[in-house]
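dumping these here so i dont lose them again. two proteins, back to back, each one seq then structure tokens. dont judge the mess
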Amino acid sequence: MSDPKDRGDELEPANDSSPVNGEADDDELQLEITREAARISELHTEIAELKERYLRAVAETENVRKRAEREKNEAAQFAFQRFARDLLSVVDNFNRALEALKPEARASLPPSVAAVVDGIEATQRELAAIFERYGIKRIEAKGQRFNANLHQAIAEMPSAEFPVGIVIDVAQTGYTLSERLLRPAMVMVSSGPAKGDGHVQSGSNIDTSA
């Protein structure tokens, strides 16, 4: 009869891969996956932040460029406005000189003087053409309703011909530059038919609101 102890020696050795060890490996793997997922999420966040910073920097650079371009254009426009406004005095002098020369007086001028007058008129026409080319336009005020955006009233006068608030005469021509006011027209405005002695009044009835 065999010894039970001897039979026990013949049993197979126990397997080291116990269920407990397998669960530990799974937990460690899951922990590693969780850490990597968190790291990936952090990287995505960093990328998004860097992208946002880049886009902000690009937008700011573009704004600076546009602002510099706008300021440059405004400075050039302002300089041109000053130059154009100074030229208006030259045009005014030409106009006054030609208006002061009556047709009968002009007809009796010596040829040499008449040639000078012709030269003044030619220069006046050339200036008008230059003004038109650069967007400088006369303000047609006479017969128009008073407009505080374009006109400056210097007097209000009774008139049987023009209704109240209509420009009846222009003391100084106004001009616009590219649809913007360069110089207002100095005008006299109708106060309607005379009720008294017809003397020149202040602009009490003129609507000066823009």
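---- next one ----
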Amino acid sequence: MDTTIDSVCCLPVGSPDRIELDAVVGINEDIKEVMRIANGLNLAAINAMLIAKKIGDASSGFSVVSAELRTFSRRLSEVMSRLMELVSALVREVAGMIRLDKALSLQQATRAAATHYPHWEAMWRRKSGELARSGAAVLDCRANLTSALARADKLCVMGQSLSYSAKIESVYGGAQAGALKHVSEGVEASVREILSTLQKLAGQLETKR
């Protein structure tokens, strides 16, 4: 059972906690979409290499670029997998922090009866400490995710340069020039879409600080 989804569903719609969790889960869905695009990019890079191999020496420049694109797509998939791990960790920490905050609120409501419960203060201090640590963990997760997004963005900028080079080299593909151009344009569009999504995610994390 997905405890993260359970946590979201149990919160009232429109509550600050629900909005917070919905935002983090939304980030997770965006990264899943980027993963899908990255997988398609890997297939496009393989296709480019096959076409270049079929042409032979006439497309030696494109062959080099397509091999670099394949390396780029593999690195991008690895980076996206790491982003997925970080977002999952963030969702867990946010859900845990919300549960602790609610537990403290419930305990606060019993403060008037604290004199009848000798361990009330000790429990309060323990839960307050747990909440503080949970809050610090959420901040750490956000910082790690922001850094990972910055690295992914930098990698995609490099991929964008490679896609431009591929488009230029496709001109020398002879009879296969059209196919090479089509592949290179597809790679360029995919990288552009990934960059746009990453920048949107970075902005969402920035507004949550």
